[in-house]
Amino acid sequence: MPLIPTPRLVLLALAPLLLGAAMAIDTSLLGPMLIADGGLVLLAVLDGLLASGRQVIVTREPPAVLSVGRTNPIRLRIRSTARRRLDVTVTDDRPPEVTVADLPARVTLGARGRANVVYHVSPSRRGAVELGDHHVRYPSPLGLWQRQLRIPARNVAKVYPDVAAVRAYELLARQSRENLLVRAVRLRGGENEFERLREYGRDDEYRNIDWKATARRGRLIVREYQQERNQTIVCLLDCGRLMTAESDGLAQLDHALNAVLMLSHVAARAGDQLGLMAFDAHVRTYLPPAGGRRAAQRVAQATYDLHAGMVETDFEGAFMELTKRLRKRALVVLFTQVIDDVSAQAVLRQVRGLRPRHLPVCVLFRDPDLDRLAEPPTGLAGAPDGELYVGAAAAEAIVWRERLVRDLKIGGALVLHVPPRNTTPAVINRYLQIKAQHLL
User: What CA–CA distances, in Å, run from 247 to 50, 186, 254, 422?
Assistant: First the structure.
């Protein structure tokens, strides 16, 4: 428990120092200087002894589950055992893949007082993370020292895909406002049986307004009809090396997993079943299709420590394994990244092989950096040759990718070519469109 000198102690130490300098003129100041030195040392030792012992107790209350790429609150409970007021500064050890805000935190505790501190962590990687020891500083009674404590602590939390978004969607869904997160597509004809009444939304059709309920409640109320239920969705997650690329602080695999987690929740609410296959050179994880209230939790638990590896993806092996396991017609959603002709041809062959038994959807991640490089530079005439070559190469890569998207559509697949940050709403909207149009 080290003691750190404060500016007050440094200022007091100037008195003997000035007396020592004055001795060059008047040697009779030796006695007062020694007395000042001794008094200062005695005062500093006494103050340090009064500050000895652990006078602050800290306990941490982390959530059991953290969401990757999200700001997660961590609560610290701080208690003083001293009979005086303490100005306490506290911080925590944390792993390098976790960004921390609001630390160090400062709080004033009364005599034997208590206080709560909340700081926030943003993990950039899924899996288990360990939050380590607490480091506390508080002043001695005379303010000559800062007592620094290291309080042992160890909390292990699991970093899941974006479960916070699922909670937000569920909260809005209970208020019939889930279309604030995704542009929900309503059924256009061919409705089955009545499901519920709810408030009118901007995307609703006028013919679904229930005028009797509207008159009773004094605001527009619409009828909502059940869509076809018990359909099957299977998500294929490419975990090869190209999915390690980062965008907006997250790997592309993390953006895909966030979309899968939300899709599992929305599909469960619609009465559908969702399965998952993660693969690279071989199948890493397989979850058979299932629904129910715990669908999103099931996906999160199975994938929280799933990471992309620096290996080539075997599309043929993965689709062959899928064909063996999947007998019922399903919506197959493939999340992948392709940048060469060999991989592109492999994806095209496998997607074409799914038709007509299944309905394939390919989610390809658009590279925002590549789009920026392809933009013509300002002052084209004076641009350096290197910049022009880079722009031309980026444009050529974009043209190649657009050609791949066109070939996939010709092969019978539905294609989403979106920036990683837009993956989740794009996937949910396409799923709702497929349900509304009875494509599955």
Answer: 53, 32, 10, 11
Instruction: Report residue 312 as tokens.
Output: 């080539």
- 56-160: CATH homologous superfamily? Immunoglobulins (2.60.40.10)
The first and second tokens of residue 129, run together, are 């993370």
- Inter-residue contact 359 to 414 (CB < 8 Å): yes
Residues 232-436: name the CATH superfamily: von Willebrand factor, type A domain (3.40.50.410)
Tokens of 172: 């809005």
Paired strand residues for 146: 4, 139
Pairing of strands 273-279, 283-290: antiparallel
Q: How far is CA 346 from each of CA 204, 330, 354, 360, rounded to the nearest angstrom?
A: 41, 21, 13, 15
Choose among 311, 309, 315: nearest CA to 342: 315
Both tokens of residue 162? 């974006």
* pTM of the entire predicted model: 0.71
DSSP 421: G
Inter-residue contact 339 to 160 (CB < 8 Å):
no
Q: Coil, strand, or helix at residue 173? A: helix
E strand or H helix that includes residue 364: strand 359-365
Q: Which residue has the tokens 């929305």?
A: 266
Across the chain, which has 440 residues, the per-10-residue mean pLDDT values are 83 78 74 78 87 89 85 93 92 90 92 93 87 93 90 89 69 51 44 70 78 89 74 94 87 91 87 93 93 84 88 93 91 92 90 91 89 68 64 85 90 91 89 83
